[in-house]
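Curious: why this fold?
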Amino acid sequence: MSAPRLPPGSTLTTLRRQGKHLLRDVRSGDPEALSRVSTHLPNQRRNRIGWPGRDAFGLRDALLVLAREHGFASWPRLKADVLAAHDKERTTMEYFTFMHNNRDSAYSEGEMDRFLEMARESGLFRGGSGLGKRTTVGEKEVENLRDHIGGYMRFDADRYGDLVELLEQHPCVVGGGTVEVIEMPKS
């Protein structure tokens, strides 16, 4: 395997998006995507999923192919490299996260309670809320964020990777949705 290499500015979000595109292309039978999988998915895994049976090929497989294309042995190693690069210049940073309303199905109150307990135990969680009544000030019309955003949370983290690992447990993400992370500027 060649030395690991990533395009400058790679983020987990962009790499996951690329993995989802590869998954879609494989499932649609795109010849280039199928060739990428044949080249980079290990024989043992191809045999386990009955390759070229495209239905058994999942996001986990697509992320492994992506990692191997970039010279990493696995997705966790690629992920660790991206997070380490992001953390090199970090001190404690404040982050706002927005829970998008794009999960495949609604999550239960119990799921959210478990996540909030985990977030509090992490020491990173600083608060958050669902969105309440909407009003606007000014004359220009703007998109109603409540149509897309279900709530927000605030976190402080020394290591961005710790925050990402926590947010991967969020019911929105677990259910196939998106949590958007905004790094607040230092004042």
Summary: The chain has a mean pLDDT of 83.
